[in-house]
Amino acid sequence: MNPATPEQPPILFTENETGERVSVTSIFVWGDENKRMHVARYASGRAFLVDDSVLNLHFTIVSPQEVVLMAFGHGDRPTAKQREAEQHGGVHSIV
Amino acid sequence: MAGFTRSFRGTLIKFVANQTPGSPPTTIYAGFSTANPGDDVSAIAEPTIGTGGYARQLMSFSAYSAPAAGATTFVANSATVTWGPSSAAWSTGATPLTHIVYWTASTGVTEATSVAYGAISLPSQVSAAGISITAQPGALQLQLAPS
Predict the structure, then answer these.
(1) Shortest Cα distance from A4 to chain B (angstroms)?
(2) Does this model's pTM top 0.90?
(3) Is A95 in Cβ contact with B12 (below 8 Å)?
(4) Rounded Cα distance, A60 and B129, in Å
């Protein structure tokens, strides 16, 4: 069983066109450790899944702001080899 | 990929074999990178220390507590770690901070001072001016899993 990937705690953004405040959470994309997607949630409940380019194009981060890093261990995200080992009933080590 | 760097793994292995691993690090600093630093940290892309309010931050760790047999061993930060606030962007354009990197020194990017690294999922604009990044106690964990 692979560990769940925790979401980044919400970060406040403003939509450039409307000025609406948006809460953005980020999460890793399975299979690509450098790829992230973001869920932009409006106060009305609308939510959109956006990538970095859309986030940068249409939203601006609220500043000043304190951003909280998500809680995670630097080894709890399985690599391809670890996933393969798990599929075959193996266990893995991060070192 | 994340985990302990080649250099620090060497230190751990030398400890096991009693082959002069050196003294334990007296300080651990946490910094960022806009690229995966790699096992030997040769691909490190760290914001410029001393520019825009960026600096590696000194960490303190909670006391180690043995887990249940078969569970992952870990230590975690015992106090809040805060970077910033930034007075200018820490990276250019849309380049996000993608990794957190642990070092035994507050400056320099030599492999010998590298300890571990891991990916983080921050939007790119977090590196803009006026942003503080905090890690609450327990948020940053260095782990060793059983095999």
Answers:
(1) 14
(2) no
(3) yes
(4) 12
